[in-house]
């Protein structure tokens, strides 16, 4: 068991890297897309709607392939082997940003209109209203669906194999084939379960800390 864990170590770090970097880029990008989606400019609204529709309506694996091969077929740009990693992060970030954008929008629209009116009476600017009043309430409301997406992301990291990028599950399959044993796949399954358990626990603690009204 210990030897298998050592063999899978690099895959574990690769999976963690994809997970962390995807969240770092997709969470704020999702907020930007939300602002565009809720813009009063119809053209911007439609651009955001089309983007979200494409990202949610096509397979993530296809999107990864487009990000990786697109520069070559569209512009004739030859990219290095290391671009595989960047393509994985770009593809994941663009995909998850679309989901987070809709979650954020639902959270913002769930805030009563009276909150905006009260802020205006108090002399708050639109930026102050959002940062001090709307955003904290939105974050609290969207924690459960965001948690679901984050947990899904842990499992989706295995799709990086589409670009021949070796993450946890891909490496586990390789080791299993080499050793003619299913044990590496079992270890990988345990890793994903523990990882998801920790993510769910951390998100639950964050959610509890925001139950300030109690």
What would you note in describing this structure?
The protein is mainly alpha-helical and 214 residues long. The chain has 8 helices and no strands. It has one domain: MetI-like fold. Helices cover 81% and strands 0% of the residues. Helix 1 packs across helix 8 and helix 6 packs antiparallel against helix 8 (183-209). The model has no long low-confidence stretch (mean pLDDT 88).
Low-confidence stretches: none
CATH class annotation: Mainly Alpha
N-to-C order of helices and strands: HHHHHHHH
The CATH superfamily name is MetI-like
> How many domains?
1
The CATH topology comes to: MetI-like fold
What is the overall shape?
A: flat
CATH architecture: Orthogonal Bundle
Biggest sheet descriptor: none
Structural class: mainly alpha
**SS element count, helices:** 8
Strand content: under 5%
- Number of beta-strand segments: 0
The portion of residues assigned to helices is: over 70%
- How far from one another are the termini? 46 Å
The radius of gyration computed from the alpha-carbon positions, rounded to a whole number of angstroms, is: 20 Å
């Amino acid at each position: 068991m210990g030897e298998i864990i050592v063999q899978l170590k690099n895959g574990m770090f690769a999976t963690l890297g994809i997970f962390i970097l995807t969240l770092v880029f997709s969470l704020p990008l999702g907020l930007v897309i939300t602002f565009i989606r809720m813009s009063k400019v119809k053209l911007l609204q439609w651009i955001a709607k089309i983007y979200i529709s494409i990202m949610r309506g096509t397979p993530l694996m296809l999107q990864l392939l487009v990000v990786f091969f697109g520069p070559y077929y569209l512009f004739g740009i030859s990219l290095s082997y290391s671009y595989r990693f960047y393509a994985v992060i770009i593809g994941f970030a663009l995909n998850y940003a679309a989901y987070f954008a809709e979650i954020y929008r639902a959270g913002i629209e769930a805030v009563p209109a009276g909150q905006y009116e009260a802020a205006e009476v108090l002399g708050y600017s639109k930026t102050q209203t959002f940062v001090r009043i709307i955003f904290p309430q939105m974050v609290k409301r969207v924690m459960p669906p965001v948690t679901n997406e984050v947990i899904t992301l842990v499992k989706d990291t295995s799709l990086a194999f589409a670009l021949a990028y070796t993450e946890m599950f891909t490496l586990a399959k390789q080791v299993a084939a080499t050793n003619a044993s299913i044990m590496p796949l079992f270890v990988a399954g345990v890793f994903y379960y523990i990882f998801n358990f920790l993510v769910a626990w951390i998100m639950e603690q964050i959610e509890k800390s925001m139950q300030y009204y109690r």
